[in-house]
Amino acid sequence: MDQPKVYAAKRSGLIRFLLVGMLLLPAAVFLLDREAFAEKPFMLLPLLAPIGLIAWIYLNTAYWLEDDKLRYKSGPWKGAVEVEKITQIVEGRTQWVGMKPALATKGLVIRYNRFDELYIAPGSNQEVIADLLAINPDIQVVKQ
Known about the structure:
This protein has 4 helices and 8 strands. The chain is α+β, with helices and mostly antiparallel strands. Keywords: Membrane, Transmembrane, Transmembrane helix.
């Protein structure tokens, strides 16, 4: 069986600032009241849990083609879209709502079925589009 082609996620902008900010918050709280945390170190857990989730999403977001499906994972979220059901790809647009396993702007909005959309931001939009068109040449590509 062939290995699936994996596309790394583009990582830029807001997600990096969010991760750094979430790392600084527990450090600042710890520095402000060291004695409280020395007595009860488990008090840092509520501050560290979101950092773990954001780091998991940051380090584990990827897309790949396998069994004629575009698959994605982003931290605890994963899914797949059948390439034959993709009707349109909007390139260079950022989607702020909906299913968005992406870490950057100016990615791909993938429209499939009748009303479903998925926003991804691979390292190379062109490479993903070319590989999807090789499977389903009927996909309409729109550049924004």
